[in-house]
Amino acid sequence: MNTQPARIHCDDGAALAATILYPPDGTPLRAVAVIAGALGVSSRFYMKFAAFLAQHGIAALTFDYRGTGKSAVATDPRGLRLAKWGTQDIDALIRRATDMAEGRPVFVVGHSMGAQLLGLAVRARRLSGAMFLGASFPNVRRWPLRRMLMPFLLFNVLIPVIGRLSRSFPAKALGLGSETIPSALMRDWGRWTRHERYLLAPEFGLNGASGYAELHLPVLAIEFSDDDYVPPAAAEALYAGYPKVDWEIRRKAVDTAPVGHFGFFSDSHRSTYWQEALDWLNCRIRTART
């Protein structure tokens, strides 16, 4: 397999650190996939799954959002806004993937925040499909009463208070990911979570310039019953936010080894969940060619 570091330039001039994984020599390129990660999760986390896709002829791009990971150095902290992860970052990755594909299908694998923000990317309309993992529009009222305390404290106390007192939010220490996150981004997220319509609320001014209502493409959404980050009501809210998407929702009951919010990307699932995902992508690739 061929792995190449890259700098992806957004329309607003920001530069993102990315890695492109090409299929091995002798394996034809069949499609290209962008892996849009979760809040506070390094692009390194997705490398094994990206390599799996590349081994099967699907070139994969992983990247760090502006203000995080290897993209933090080149980011002006004064202009950080969480919505730009969708309007600029994911959009720029789709542009690069489309250029690489040369007419072949292009997909986005959206994990958590990556799934939430896809509708902000204008170029998402060029996709042949998408796959969502751990996808939701979180709001404290969407958790069952017995599990409501922790999201309430996070959204209504920790994010507003720490976000004002410190430039960096200790997401890793709080179990929200593997990276420290600029507080400006967390404050944006906190404001979204406190609104029933999440980022689609008119007061945020995002949906009018985005493609949520118009995005029409097939999406496979995989849910896991032990994902405490995604109560069913929050997942349903996200699905409703993409009204024209052709949804295929697969709900997995987890009875033995935990999967949770992050476990899908463990290579222990290579022959199970990863193969299931690949089968779906292969089906969409064949459909795109007909």
Automatic annotation (TrEMBL):
What domain of life does the UniProt record list for this protein's source? Bacteria
- For this entry, the protein name equals Predicted hydrolase of the alpha/beta-hydrolase fold
Asked if Iron-sulfur is a keyword of the record, the answer is no
Q: Where are the transmembrane segments?
A: none
Q: From which organism does this entry originate?
A: Pandoraea pulmonicola
Entry's Gene Ontology molecular function annotations: carboxylic ester hydrolase activity
Q: Family, per the entry?
A: Belongs to the AB hydrolase superfamily. FUS2 hydrolase family.
| InterPro entries (UniProt xref) | AB_hydrolase_1, AB_hydrolase_fold, FrsA_esterase, UCP037442_abhydr
Protein keywords: Hydrolase
Instruction: Check the record and name the SUPFAM superfamilies matching this protein.
Output: alpha/beta-Hydrolases
> Hydrolase as a keyword?
yes
PANTHER family recorded for this chain? DIENELACTONE HYDROLASE DOMAIN-CONTAINING PROTEIN-RELATED (PTHR22946), POLYKETIDE TRANSFERASE AF380 (PTHR22946:SF9)
Q: Where is the AB hydrolase-1 domain?
A: 40-267
